[in-house]
Design a protein that fits this description.
The complex is a heterodimer of chains A (138) and B (109). Chain A has 138 residues and is α+β, with helices and mostly antiparallel strands. Chain A contains four helices and six strands; from the N terminus they run E-E-H-H-E-E-E-H-E-H. The longest helix of chain A is centred in the first third of the chain and has 15 residues. Chain B is globular, with a radius of gyration of 14 Å. Classes of the chains: A alpha+beta (138), B alpha+beta (109).
C-alpha cells in the first residue's frame, strides 16, 4: 500500500446532518465490528483478536468518536499524540452509508475538536489508491 | 555502522533530534511515545533501533508487529544510501520514508 501523510492545521466546518460524540460502552461492539471491517478493508495484517481488544480499549479511554445521525453512521479515532500534534485514524463508514458526507463531517468535527483542545496540527495517513479518502482531506 | 536497539524512552532521547519534523514523523514519534508510556506485551515486543555513523544517528527505525518496519533518515543530508538509491542491489523497503523536496505541504481539510 502506498500512503500519503497529510498535515492539517484547520478544519473545514461544513458538516452534514448529525453530530460528533465520543463512543461509549454501549457502542463498543459496533466499534469492534467497524474496526475489523476497517482493518480488513485496508489489507492490514493485524490479528482480529488484537483489533477487537484495541477497539474496546480505545472506546474505554475515549479515543473513538462517532458521527451520529440518529444512529452511529461513521467513526474516527484520535491516536498517537506527539508534542504539538495528534493523528486521526480508523476513519470508517459502513458501505451502505457511504456517499452522504458522513466521514467528511466526522473527520472535520473531530479535527476541530482536537485543534480546540490545544493541538497545533493533526495528521493522518491516506491510501493513495483510495480516491474517496483522498478526496475527503483535500 | 553500528545498530543499537533501544527501549522506547531511550529511543526517544536519542532520535528525537533526527525526527524533529514532528508532522512528517508522527508515526514513529507517536508510537515511541505510546510505547514509553504503555509498554507492549511480552509476546508482541516492538523493535526500535538506530544506526550510528560518525555524525551521530543516521537512521531511525521502528517496527510494531505485524506492521512494516518504519525507517527514517534525512538521506539528503547524509552519505546514506536511501530507499530509492540506484544500483544493482536496489532494495524495496516497505515503510521506508524520507523527506520530499519542499517538505510536507499543509493541506486544508
Amino acid at each position: 500500500m502506498h500512503v500519503r501523510v497529510c498535515e492539517l492545521h484547520v478544519a473545514h466546518l461544513r458538516y452534514g446532518p448529525g453530530y460528533l460524540r465520543p463512543a461509549g460502552a454501549a457502542d463498543a461492539e459496533l466499534v469492534v465490528r467497524w474496526a475489523l471491517a476497517f482493518t480488513s478493508g485496508c489489507g492490514l495484517r493485524d490479528r482480529p483478536e488484537q483489533v477487537a481488544e484495541g477497539a474496546r480499549r480505545r472506546v474505554a479511554i475515549g479515543d473513538i468518536f462517532l458521527w451520529d445521525d440518529g444512529r452511529p453512521v461513521s467513526m474516527a479515532a484520535r491516536t498517537r499524540p506527539t508534542r504539538h500534534g495528534i493523528s486521526v485514524g480508523h476513519v470508517y463508514t459502513p458501505p451502505e452509508l457511504r456517499g452522504r458526507g458522513y466521514a467528511t463531517a466526522c473527520v472535520a468535527a473531530l479535527s476541530q475538536h482536537l485543534l480546540d483542545s490545544g493541538y497545533g496540527f493533526w495528521t493522518l495517513f491516506t491510501d493513495l489508491a483510495n480516491p474517496t479518502s483522498n478526496h475527503i482531506y483535500q | 555502522m553500528p545498530i543499537t536497539a533501544y527501549p522506547a524512552a531511550a529511543f526517544l532521547r536519542d532520535v528525537q533530534a533526527l525526527l524533529e519534523r514532528e508532522a512528517a514523523n508522527n508515526l514513529m514519534l507517536g508510537l515511541a511515545l505510546r510505547l514509553a508510556q504503555l509498554p507492549a506485551p511480552a509476546e508482541n515486543l516492538p523493535y526500535l533501533a538506530a544506526v550510528h555513523d560518525d555524525e551521530g544517528i543516521a537512521i531511525a527505525a521502528l517496527m510494531t508487529w505485524p506492521h512494516n518496519l518504519a525507517v527514517y533518515s534525512d538521506w539528503s543530508a547524509r552519505r546514506v544510501a536511501g530507499p530509492s538509491a540506484a544500483g544493482p542491489a536496489r532494495a524495496r523497503f516497505p515503510g521506508a520514508r524520507r523527506p520530499r523536496a519542499g517538505g510536507l505541504r499543509p493541506r486544508l481539510c
